[in-house]
Design a protein that fits this description.
Organism (chains A, B): Formosa sediminum
Strand order of the largest sheet of chain A: 4-3-5-6
Function (chains A, B): May play a role in DNA repair. It seems to be involved in an RecBC-independent recombinational process of DNA repair. It may act with RecF and RecO.
Oligomer: homodimer
GO biological process, one term (chains A, B): DNA recombination
Strand content of chain A: 5-15%
Number of domains of chain A: 2
Order of helices and strands of chain A: HHHEEEHEHEHEHH
Pfam families (chains A, B): RecR_C, RecR_HhH, RecR_ZnF, Toprim_4
InterPro entries (chains A, B): DNA_Rcmb_RecR, Rcmb_RecR, Rcmb_RecR_Znf, TOPRIM_dom, TOPRIM_RecR
CATH topology of the largest domain in chain A: Dna Topoisomerase Vi A Subunit, Chain: A, domain 2
Number of helices of chain A: 8
Largest sheet of chain A: 4 strands, parallel
Chain lengths: 205, 205
């Protein structure tokens, strides 16, 4: 692509560094900004800068936060000894949306994935193990995605805290509500039968 | 969506103002920036700011430029009395890529589209008509996308310069009707410029 302006070229190049944004999309976005009032671009740039330079991670759970402790960790009405282990902040937001969890979170910042060069020491695992060792935690809920990397991460943490006085559980794996049984994959369907739950239990929602 | 940080929320909101970027995509992009070195965000923000505040539009053709006159208009080897009328800078880039046009451009900045509230006076049409009136132009090539709005715009300009000493042509309809100019392949686009036809001819259809 040949640009008539170095400023335009630089903006398009920076924009196309974002994941899933090619040169053509970047150009479309940048030209859109040019057609909008200058204030929109100023606000976008300022918001990104402020976010990147001033954002903090909660000292306790590693969630994104404006303060030293995030709103969830500093909320006295949340159950302090029930911790849900998740991959990133998007999972926190997804679970918070369901309003069915009243404990705290622990954000790992990723999953163990040797293929991508992510080992256990690149993740926020040690502080979690320390919390358990200090006896602050009664129950740990693993809520990582049920993929190979997620299972590996679950297992690694489980080995670290084995023998300590803590209950571990994972989120239920089964058929999604509203799904057709005949289209479910064999592993999921098989597990959902092995891990069947009392009928009365399934009525709670 | 509930955010644990106002800074994050602001960044996501600003990002999702871009066309085709929803809240979920914006969050994905912003979290990506958080995982990258701070310099990437700084460079992106700076490039967008510089682009929006310092970019100029060529005094002659309205193309995006770093100088008062763009590189094409100030190139003495380009044919000065042959002007190709296009919708926006992406079309200039697409035609330049074919290397089949050696004249100048005139960027309208849009198409007449009453549905979107864009009338002739919102476009850069008057300077083009003035150029023709001053006798600077021998031939005008209409290279707008062959849609209803493009045809309307062609026809509006044609009526404005009717009777003046200028040849008008449109790019050949090798481009499928309804297609966007920027996505046409180079051969088709190049040929459609070489095989341009008198504007009166294109009215019969």
């Amino acid at each position: 692509m040949e640009f008539s302006s170095k400023l335009l070229e630089k903006a398009v190049n920076e924009m196309s560094q974002l994941p899933g944004v090619g040169k053509r999309t970047a150009l479309r976005l940048v030209l859109h900004l040019l057609r909008q009032p200058e204030s929109q671009t100023v606000q976008l740039a300022q918001a990104l800068l402020n976010m990147r330079t001033e954002i903090k991670f909660c000292k306790s759970c590693n969630n994104i936060s404006d303060n030293v402790l995030c709103e969830i960790c500093s909320n006295p009405r949340r159950q302090q000894d029930l911790i849900c282990v998740v991959e990133d902040i998007r999972d926190v937001m997804a679970i918070e949306n369901t309003s069915s969890f009243k404990g705290l979170y622990h954000v790992l910042g990723g999953k163990i994935s040797p293929m991508d060069g992510v080992g256990p020491h690149d993740l926020n695992i040690t502080p979690l193990v320390n919390k358990v060792k200090e006896g602050q935690v009664k129950e740990l809920i693993f809520a990582l995605s049920p993929t190979m990397e997620g299972d590996t991460t679950n297992f690694y943490i489980f080995k670290q805290i084995q023998g300590l006085d803590v209950v571990t559980s994972t989120i239920a794996r089964g058929i999604a509500v509203g799904d057709e049984l005949e289209y479910a994959d064999e592993v999921t369907l098989g597990r959902s039968i092995l891990n069947r739950i009392p009928f009365e239990g399934s009525l709670k929602s």
